[in-house]
Amino acid sequence: MTRYVVVGGGILGLATAHRILLDRPGASVTVLEKEDRWAAHQTGHNSGVIHAGVYYAPGSLKASFCTGGRLSMVDFCREYGVPYRICGKLVVATRPEEVPRLRALHARSLANGLDVRMLTPEQAREHEPHVSCVAAMHVPETGIVDFGAVCRTLADLLTEAGADLRLGTRVTAIHGSVVETTGGEVSADVVVNCAGLHADRVARLAGVRPEARIVPFRGEYYELRPERRDLVRGLVYPVPDPQLPFLGVHLTRTIHGSVHAGPNAVLALSREGYSWREVRLRDLAEAAAFPGLWRLARRHYRYGAAEVGRSLSTALFVRSLARLVPDITPDDVVPAGAGVRAQAVRRSGDLVDDFLISRRGRQVHVLNAPSPAATSALAIARHVVAQLPE
User: Fold this and answer.
1) Model confidence over 331-344: pLDDT tens digits?
2) Under a CB-based contact definition with an 8 Å cutoff, are residues 69 and 372 in contact?
3) What are 35-59's pLDDT values in tens digits?
4) CATH number of the domain where residue 363 is located
5) Which of the residues 31, 65, 367, 371 could staple to 356 if both were Cys, CB 3.0 to 4.6 A apart?
6) Phi, psi of 114 (to 5 degrees)
């Protein structure tokens, strides 16, 4: 019996453990999660969008995993009764200079096999009556779901299949076939690192020098007050900056009926820093000593300053929303928490734009899995398991 140990209890770790049991009957699977609940960080703090694959370069892992993952996620939700909805979204150009980028996005979407359509402002308002734009693109395949509910379902399936699920268990060292944890030693023939915000640290515990470092970016959300939710029917996104991995402040109706607004993107002062008050000196010192962060900051300091401004000023944040839906005012929104994105950055200061998955002997390390990782989790899991030694 091969003993597989998966580090990380977010959607990717749980999906990978589930795929191991599906593909390798009789395997022993242990999942180690340092928190006291599943999906405690990235998975549990996102806006719940099932992405269609609009933004990703054709032929990239993101594009292929998103396409397969979206279909697999919908099938999984249908099979196990997880609520979801395919509601579509609009990507809107609010200024004439954004239209060429929107048309390039349209061409990329077609290359990725999506049934997208360019719209006039009048046609866009048929989907979203309160939106303002000079042109728009409709993406009918986009959906919404509660990824936390997906994780709870995966955990239940793993328990039923006999997996050993350990919450509150942090990995402290990896030596050959022994994984040392705060709950004792665990024997492992194969280790899969799906530790998200701490993926590079877990890799170093295993003796691997990852080619990139995790830099945490906090995304802060507001939500529309219940009486103003009728301003948004589905999802409304701006045209993104192709030089950055962030999609810009957008509006998202969730599966539970609320409407989230955000996120922005500011450097977090801790790998689990969900507010400006959460500071961890070890994380700050490690980030400050990493030359890639300083090179990244020099290239994008104007963008970074604007994001900090949105973080500190509700009025500035709402101004970005009002570009999309002019009827939104500061009185229409209330704070709605934040998430932290694990963004891999190379020493050169380049952002790792695609998924980064590395195999070292009997270990596989998922070193960069940003959006659309939740959408793609089942497809990524299949890819990871295919790389694992028997």
Assistant:
1) 999 999 999 999 99
2) yes
3) 999 999 999 999 899 999 999 999 9
4) 3.50.50.60
5) 367
6) -95, 155
